[in-house]
Structures are given as C-alpha cells and as structure tokens.
Amino acid sequence: MKAFPAGFLWGGAIAANQVEGAWQEDGKGPSTSDMQPNGVFGELVERKEGDSALKDVAIDFYHRYPEDVALFAEMGFNCLRISIAWTRIFPNGDESTPNEAGLAFYDDLFDELAEHGITPLVTLSHYEMPWGLVKEYGGWGSRETIRCFEHYARTVFSRYQNKVKLWLTFNEINMSLHAPMTGVGLPNSSSKAEVYQAIHHQLVASALAVKACHEIIPDAKIGNMLLGGLMYPLSCKPEDVFETLQQNRSWAFFGDVQCRGAYPGYMLRYFRDNGIEIEITDADREALRTTVDFISFSYYMSGCVTADEALNEQLRGNILSMVPNPHLPSSEWGWQIDPLGLRTLLNMMWDRWQKPLFIVENGLGAKDHVEADGSIHDDYRIAYMNDHLLQVREAIEDGVEMLGYTSWGPIDLVSASKAEISKRYGFIYVDREDDGSGTLARSRKKSFFWYRDVIASNGANLE
Ligand code: BG6
Question: Which residue positions are annotated as catalytic (predicted)?
C-alpha cells in the first residue's frame, strides 16, 4: 500500500484550557472557559473563592509538559497542535502591555518542542477568550474586541516569529452558531442577528490576523479552523437534498468567507429572508479580502438532514441537531462513526476551495479500562483511527492536497462538551477521574505503540 506524501505532518492536537490547568498562575486572567466549568455548552458560573472545577488543574500540562513532549516524541510526532491561552498574555484582554510570565511559558514550550524536532501548530483562540472582554465590552459583539485581538495576535507573532511558522486563527469558528458564549462571548440566549454580527467581527479579526502574520512572519503559513459538519440527506427526496445543501452551507459559509474573501450570495439571502441586518463597513470588506493560506478542520462524525419538520423534531439528537444515520454505528457518546465521510469531506473541501487541507482534530472519545497490570487495550481507538486514516490516504490518491494530520487529544484531557475526563481520546493515559481524584501519572496505551508504528512507516502499515 502507498505511504503518505513525504513531509506529511503527523502528530496530535491539544487546547490550553483542556490540558494546562494552572488557571490562576503566573498572572493568568480568567477566561470564558474558566466560567464554564461544566463544558462549552454549559451555563456560566461566576467563580467564587474556594470552589473548583476539573479544568482548573486539567492534566497539569502547565507543569508537566516536558514529560508529555518526550512521550509525543517517542511516538515520532513531527507536529503538535497547541493553543495559546489569550489570558496568559493579556489577563483582561485589553491591556497594552503583555504579561511576561505568560509569554515566557510558551517560549519554554516551543523550545522543548524544538529540542525534540516537533513543529508547533498554534491556534490563537481555542474555545476561550478573556472574561474581561465579555464583561466590559460584550465579547465579540463589540468592535473593541477586534482591536484587542489584533493586538494580541501581533504580540504573539512578534514574540514567536522565529519559533512558530504554522498558525490557526479561531478553533471551530462555526461553533458559535451552537455555543455563542464559547465562540463569541455572547449569552447563549442571544438572537441570530446578534450572533451573526459577532461572527462578522470575528471573521474580520481572523482576516486581520492573517494579514498581520504575513507582515510579521513572511515565511509562516496561517489557516482557519472549521468544524467539518458533514451532512447527508436522510432520503433522496429533492426537499431533503436541498435542505442538506443549506445545512452544509451553514458551516461552509465560514470557509467561503475565509477562503474567498467575501460573503457568498446565499448568506446575504439568508440574512434578508430572516430580517438580519449586519453592519459591514467598507473597511471590513477590505479586511476580509485577505484569505487564509490553508484550511484546517476537525472531523468526528457525520449526520443526516430531513426537510420533514415533524421527523426532525422526533429524531434530532446530538449537539449539532443532526438526525442519526441508520447505517452507521455510534460511539458511547452517540457520535456516529463514519470513516468514508472523511474522504467525502476532504474531496468536498478541496473541490470547493482548492487550498491545502490539514486535519487538525480526529479521534475517538471512549471509556478505557485499566487492567490489573496497568495496561490498556484500546483496540476500538486503533480501529477508529486506522479506518479514518485509510480514507485520508484514499483522498490523497483522489488528488486532495494535504499538509498533515493531528489526532485529537493524544494524551487524555478534559472534554470540551462535558468537561469530563472519562471521555478519553489519548494514546497516553492520565490517571485522573471525573471527581478530580488520581495521581496524574501518565502511561502508554496499546494505541501508543500502534500510532508510533503508523508514523514510522509514514502510513504504509495501515490495513
Ligand atoms: C472539538 C473541539 O469540538 O472537539 C475540542 O475543538 C474538543 O476542543 C473536541 O475537545 C472533542 O469534543 P469533546 O466534547 O469530546 O471534548
């Protein structure tokens, strides 16, 4: 079987708020994630002295990263996707001078990665923003947040210009439609018009960050990041097919703006039909013309769409309001497993945007069982990833240009949707339970050795 292209980036992806812990250390300010101890869809909880959340310590990556990076290197990673916690750099979000201790932490982390030959891929904002910006300005509802974000982006581009050449702007930028507080710092009860205005501000900020990155680090590449929400029609009824087109546009719209540099006509019609008026200035239009260098995305599952409202109400299930596919199995968390869907999605994105693609999240959240001798036989995770990677290889054969693959959560971490650690994605097990007990010790699962062999053979050993 064919291997992956030479220079393919292999590794894993983590996010600051799901691994670092140290939520109040070295001058870090509170973020929206700190105010959502129950997960990205959860209600806001104003933190009081003495209360605690699993994410406060998470897996203590802040203090243990040298051990973790060494384990990633042992698997042969040549890439690690991380995110910078904006609140380590600007605790309130609107300061003019950055917090040196926060900057120093990431300097040290990048140095550690460099020593192991691991290329960092850095997300500027992964499901969190400074709480100060939410309280004082109303999050991305305000143009002031664009200014603060651009200042933050320019600060980290300047500081890490010799260490980081691969960047991403906003994680799963389309998730704001489903989780407004997490995505754009707006109350979850906000109207569609308010959410789309905030999204517009974020799209402008993303484009300004791309421009700044090109100016400050000319040899860097910067991409967007989408939740690849692939939808199929539940039947071949033309109404179902058309509704599916619309649903796929609800996420592809973000990619259209970020890759083509302007709002697509179907979106302007959606705004008109729904009485949504967005303030888009000439300066905004000019800013949006700067497009991303590559497209990155997450892929976990696919779903179905029906135009039949009654059926919709009856069947609609998981977080993205998808209708379940009767032909697919599901994970323990109800996420439908669809490896071929990944090939379909890669081809769709390539056909649509003709920019290199980077899968920056994919994996199986599952409960692991630790045997008496400490071993963990996670064959289900191996099967999931093997089957998905085979489809990636097929897509490459189809002519899709690909930069790399970073699996989600190469080390167990706190889940975004439920803020629990028992939903494990890792090749590396972390001894911690949902109630916060455990030693935080790391150990290698069976999949650790499997992924090491996949990387060593550049994908040639997949079966
Ligand atoms: C993506 C996010 O939505 O999916 C990650 O970018 C998240 O932050 C991942 O962890 C898996 O979701 P969950 O809810 O299982 O953690």
Answer: 361 (nucleophile)
